[in-house]
């Protein structure tokens, strides 16, 4: 139900207020009908509030309705929302209305309350608020509780504070001036609803029909005709059958686009976060070059003055090569001076190798980050075809997954499966793998089991290196160089008695050394 349609219902209702209420009935579990009585109504009428997503509605009906409360919320509504209906308000022309009730005195007094209806499609909700003005206040009870797990931007909890939907800027069709309408002459008439408050897909299609223009047609000099159509919609926001079909199609497309946006936002946000973290790794690795230079300098000093370093010393002071004075050097007492130097050389090499490997990817990472950020920014404005194309590209870029582990393809076309947790590791190794398939694991590091389904054939060297890099990149050695990876046939891998899932022993293995990064 769209904003102008709601305004028409409230306009007809407000002309009769205040009205005496005769109680609530509940035709079904998501419909509440309030029986109203007053001389100007010409007899009892029902104000019907149907709050089932995705098509909530509000209307006045003379039909005789029945039904007892079918949920705790409906029982609360019947018991607590009582008394004369004093006022009905709408938030601008948004799909949010508030009904003000006077309360009543009796055996148990009921205080004044407000009934707030969010007539907002998939997010439709009916809430009882405490007495007050406007559209804010404490939520006494809600038909649908919205927690942070369902909507991270806006929660609705009984006892919490209700906050209206965020404000927006649109033109008011009830006060649309000729100057404002003329400014929209270069906007397709089907998109005027994006500029006018209270219009959705249905009324947007009806506007085009009443203006005798196609939805994609520019009004141009015919803008006065469109202005007249807007004014007629304000007076009578009903929809003809043809426009209803066109608007329904447009609403379905809009619903599909909203679903796609929601589905795409999470993976795209994750992609942006991952790329930013990887670029931060480059920055940290660059800072590590300073430590590498210091390690090399201390190692050179230790090698040059090894004969002067006392055995078992925890530190030593050595003269700097550039004559700048004495340099304190910490030592591991159990190692000789040469061994301490070799350890520093190895640490410096690792830091330099990590930086060089990451620096090679820096330009690529920055380009990928710019593309990912552009995709996120385009989500809010992209139309349905663009969203579908983006969804297809994102799906193609994802690694192919199977019910058991992430699936990759080796250079010779064999299937390689990578366990994503201990349970999947156990499943791949003990249930999926056949005795002559190949099994890979980073030596001495916790990580994924990698299964290459070879059908009993021996592996070519490119396949071995590919699978080994998968194992190294999915282990605690990720990002390191020269990671030892063991591989053997599945028949040589077994689970020790009583061991937890994913823990194995193996024999007859061979070892290769690879980088701990994913293969191309």
Automatic annotation (TrEMBL):
Domain of life: Bacteria
Keyword Magnesium: no
Gene3D superfamilies linked to this entry: ibrinogen binding protein from staphylococcus aureus domain (2.30.310.10)
Keywords: Coiled coil
Keyword Protease: no
One Pfam family of this chain: NFACT_N
Coiled-coil ranges per UniProt: 355-382
Annotated ranges, domain NFACT RNA-binding: 408-505
The protein, known as: Fibronectin-binding protein
Species name: Deinococcus actinosclerus
